[in-house]
Amino acid sequence: MSLRFFVILCLLCGINAGYEEIDLSIIGAVEERPGFWDDKIPELKPHQIVSRLRSSRIVGGWEVKPHSHPYVVFMLSTYGPSTWRCSGSIISSTAILTAAHCPEGSTSSLVVSGVHNVNTIEETQQRRRIPSYDYKIHENYNPHNLQNDIAILFIRSYPITETREVQFVQLPYDYKKELFVGEMVSIVGWGRTCTLCQSSSVLRGSENYVIANEECLPYHTLFSDHQMCIRTEGARGACLGDAGGPYTLSRSGSTDRTAIQIGIHSVIAVGGCEADRPSGAVRLTYFLDWIDSNLKA
């Protein structure tokens, strides 16, 4: 064994030696946290009821190639003695983009990047603990109807290191006026693989079409211009537990490793996970100025 290889191996062991194993079987989605639905408007509560029956997961999807979506992070948010999960995306070495309802009210969040199998302490993983004072939740976020459901988590002391397995997602600066209707988006997350199964320890994904917002209105009258509508035909797509994760697409010259993020999965999935009805996400082009102002602050 060469000295160089030995040094690298020791560094990797040192980085991961302090990591604890994550047991998804005892960690629920943040939307399943007791009291989460108490202050929500009645129109959202049918989603809660159906989703409890359908469970939370990437529905009708498949296991993705390990680290083919290197910008996705697994999140654990702490509320007193309990911990709940979400997802997010890396937009810089010091910033994570997610849904506002993921860190809202929590004391801290653990962000895990470079992860494929959550139940394994992989050498590719980087873990960062972010205290509540380093969250920036949109000032117009409404916890009652989940409008403006977007937040940034800042990593102040120990920035994320970009590697082959950990990379930054592209934001849609060149596509501010586009609605992306008719385009296929990629959705990934760690969730249940069937109604009564445990959460998947590996990253799974699905592909869904963006449709006009008008198609969501018959199912969800709260839909607004700063949200986007996703078709879930074939009963596949994101659901509870995948909140905060990115909706991405590829354009000419881009790849999965340089995906363009156009949305953030929110809790609004009309009719439940397995219902063949449209679901909603945060429309990222609407919030680019807000993201920029906070990154420069």
Automatic annotation (TrEMBL):
PROSITE patterns: TRYPSIN_DOM, TRYPSIN_HIS
Domain of life, per lineage: Eukaryota
Keyword match Lyase: no
GO molecular function: serine-type endopeptidase activity
Keyword Signal applies: yes
Similarity annotation: Belongs to the peptidase S1 family. CLIP subfamily.
Protein name: Peptidase S1 domain-containing protein
Organism per entry: Chironomus riparius
